[in-house]
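Input/output pair, single chain:
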Amino acid sequence: MAYDWVTGARRDPDGRLLAFNLTDNQVRDPDTFNECALWIDTALHRLPPVRFERPGGVHQPWRVRDAEGRVDVTFEPTVRNEQHIGPRSALADYYGPFGWCSGTIVDNDGAPVSVDACFGMGEQSSSASRSVDRPSSVSRSPRRAGPLSGIAQRTISATSAK
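Output:
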């Protein structure tokens, strides 16, 4: 599974809460089902699907835009946060930096909303898509002894029995 995500929030000069969520993930029909939204106080504005560009890599500015011209946001990472899972990151690479956003999002009424100076977080995640062979039963041999082995074995056995 792979996805890209940026979210940010701040108060505008009038004290209204401005927040947004932009993601490009693995949905079948992103024009109908996506998680892209803009909030102005309690008003929710649905947004079209977006695409992410990272010409300099995950530690350089990210550009998030849509095909309709409603979203044009730049995310500039300032604090690194990453995890690499598995040997040579074979299972997953995750980047979740914090940083500052700038740009414009057009609300449902056609009004441009500045997201300049929104503090936010971005994520880029990718994982290997592979099937894992799981045994139908767990051996209770002494070589698997450990503090959680009995709990794990009972859980797997109970799950397999359903």
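Confidence is low (pLDDT under 50) at residues 129-162. The helical segments are 149-161.
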